[in-house]
Amino acid sequence: MKLNLPPHPFLQATAEGEAALQGEVLRIVGKAKSVADLFAGVGTFALPLAHKARIHAVEQDKSALAALAEAAKTPGLKPVTTEVRDLFKLPLGPAELKGYDAVVLDPPRAGAEGQVKMLAKSQVPVIAYVSCDADSFARDAAILIAGGFKIGPVTPVDQFLWSSHIELVGRFVRS
Ligand SMILES: C[S@@+](CC[C@H](N)C(=O)[O-])C[C@H]1O[C@@H](n2cnc3c(N)ncnc32)[C@H](O)[C@@H]1O
Description:
Elements: H1 15-29, E1 34-38, H2 46-49, E2 54-59, H3 62-71, E3 80-84, H4 94-97, E4 102-105, H5 113-121, E5 126-131, H6 134-146, E6 149-157, E7 167-174
Parallel strand pairs: 1-2, 1-4, 2-3, 4-5
Antiparallel strand pairs: 5-7, 6-7
Helix pairs in contact: 5-6
The structure holds S-adenosylmethionine.
Residues 10, 12, 39-42, 44-45, 59-61, 64, 86-88, 106-108, 132 line the site of S-adenosylmethionine.
């Protein structure tokens, strides 16, 4: 698959780290047929997931989504739709989340407090939450757990060499 990167794209820190995150996200999403990828960037998760599921990718960076949409035309992939949207100001609400078998969430360091509050009120059964900040992840995980999700496993991916930062992938399922 060919992905034409836009100027200043967000990319995961290392190829090995990216592969580990993709593997974990694919495992959590499992056999879901319809997936929302929130904070999707250029499609690090949306594109591999599109081999087996329809994807709705949401992100505020228009050029990242344009690159994703172009790559998603690769023959053999399931349909991928894209939406330019500020998820801090306007998170997807419970009605919009209806019908997704799984949601992938990969916000910046600030986390996704507004979006997880909506997920906590939704009927989404499975969430793969990728985080580069343990503090905002813990805050958001508490909101999801209070909303009826069970957490676990949480997999650390040590992709920020020579730094105390850690990437996490958390699995949340409705109990
Ligand atoms: C940690 S990156 C993850 C990108 C992608 N999932 C990946 O792994 O390559 C976070 C993404 O969130 C996007 N973003 C930041 N603030 C946002 C907002 N308020 N609404 C929607 N997207 C936002 C950034 O442009 C960036 O692509």
